[in-house]
TrEMBL record, chains A, B:
It comes from Haloarchaeobius litoreus. This is Peptidyl-tRNA hydrolase. The gene is pth2. It comes from the Archaea. Keywords: Hydrolase. The natural substrate for this enzyme may be peptidyl-tRNAs which drop off the ribosome during protein synthesis.
Length: 112, 112
């Protein structure tokens, strides 16, 4: 099992900002999962991959695909205290879910 | 309320790796919190800051301080599939907790 987190490359997030937004997405999608899925993922080491997304529209398309696959997912908008305008979409987390199902949504993306 | 995640600067993690390890620590410390603390933090926007840690010994010292302050916390070791040797300590998450209590542990560190 795994969780894939897609982060935008086109908005110039610093390293710390990127990490915080990825963590935010990861936790939110985790909370969107049922308890059986959560337990299975944690029991298998809560594998995560961080992937590159080209922009806001790609993140929304991937979220639609995750929805079709019935995968837990979460889109994050930045609160805008620093660096980015308030409401800027930054990250999308897909899963936890079975590797092959998550790959149907994000398997074509490059590692961040 | 906030959560602080301290990441080592001395082991040369790439951006994606750093983000995944920060997310791992964030989720693990979150799970170490009681349900009232979890809800309060989420309700206030689950604020996170990512901070610089100089090395493994500093992370362990900060974890001891978090323990003394009775803050939820989690030290993460990398599974070692990529980039790092298996078992390398990468990150420490402290909180969620009240800002001033978290600051007693990590307030002196720089933003990542």
């Amino acid at each position: 099992m795994k969780q894939a987190i897609v982060a935008r490359t086109d908005i110039g997030m610093g390293q710390g900002k990127l990490a915080a937004q990825v963590a935010h997405a990861s936790l939110s999608a985790y909370e969107d999962a049922d308890s059986r899925t959560r337990k299975a993922w944690k029991g298998s080491g809560q594998k995560k991959v961080v992937l590159k997304g080209s922009g806001e529209s790609e993140l929304f398309e991937l979220a639609d695909r995750a929805e079709s696959e019935r995968l837990p997912h979460a889109i994050i908008r930045d609160a805008g205290h620093t660096q980015l305008d308030s409401g800027t979409v930054t990250t999308l987390a897909v899963g936890p879910g079975e590797d092959e199902v998550v790959d149907r949504v994000t398997g074509h993306l490059s590692l961040f």
